[in-house]
Specification:
Layout lengths: L1 H11 L4 E4 L2 E4 L3 H9 L12 H20 L6 H4 L5 H7 L4 H21 L25 H9 L5 E3 L2 E3 L12 H11 L12 H10 L9 H5 L6
Helix pairs in contact: 6-8, 7-9, 8-9
């Protein structure tokens, strides 16, 4: 009978040990006493990030991106006054003759050639031939390609093993000699092309020689023209 009462008293008696740092120590020791008083050690868990915090972070990134874009990254209008952006600063720098020629050619290409031949110079399959890697663009000399731009070309023409049959309009009454030289220099040196630049004098000479021609060229006619004089 006494054993049963003792067992009952032991079950109601508080624990005489406490876990501390992964080990159990007597509750009567200073460390055990502190552990019992402070409660169990904290355990790492997962807490959901508030949606508002995520939205705020996204807004901050967006504002920072807009700010950087408006200032061109390292652009400070107080330093570069009166220029509005880094592009304007670069345009104001002096350039060599070839660099200025290609800059003008890029602008002319964007205004005149890009809709058909695309920014990549790859043209449009089955409709407009590519300029990148084109044998007509990369001839030894620019005699044929100058004629194509001046008077246009019509009828079937093979480019890089594919046939195209669409008319290119003449540009002799729209573009000046220096503009034609610039855009041809651009296309002969872009997209992996390794052709030489074209001089305005070369365009002027071809214009004078073919001045009476009013019809577009055909591929067969162009093949009879030497690539280089």
């Amino acid at each position: 009978m006494s054993k049963g009462r003792n067992k009952h008293r032991n079950e109601q008696r508080p624990s005489q040990a406490a876990p501390v740092g992964g080990r159990v120590v007597p509750a009567t020791s200073p460390a055990g006493f502190e552990a019992l008083r402070e409660g169990p050690e904290p355990v790492a868990g997962k807490v959901a990030v508030p949606v508002l915090l995520i939205a705020l972070l996204g807004l901050l990134i967006y504002v920072a991106d807009v700010h950087m874009n408006n200032r061109g990254g390292e652009f400070d209008p107080r330093v570069y006054y009166p220029f509005a952006n880094l592009t304007a600063v670069a345009d104001a720098h002096p350039r060599g003759a070839d660099e200025e020629l290609l800059r003008k050619g890029r602008t002319t290409y964007g205004n005149v050639c890009l809709p058909c031949h695309q920014a990549t110079g790859m043209g449009q399959a089955g409709t407009f031939p590519p300029l990148a890697g084109s044998e007509w663009v990369l001839g030894e000399g620019p005699e044929r390609i100058i004629r194509i731009v001046l008077n246009g070309v019509s009828g079937a023409i093979d480019v890089k093993g594919a046939q195209f049959n669409n008319a290119m309009p003449p540009w002799k009454d729209v573009l000046k000699d220096d503009e034609i030289a610039a855009v041809l220099s651009f296309v002969r040196t872009q997209w992996g092309n390794k052709g030489a630049t074209v001089k305005p004098e070369e365009v002027k000479a071809v214009r004078a020689k073919e001045g009476s021609r009013e019809t577009p060229w055909t591929a067969d006619e162009l093949k009879k023209v030497p690539e280089k004089l």
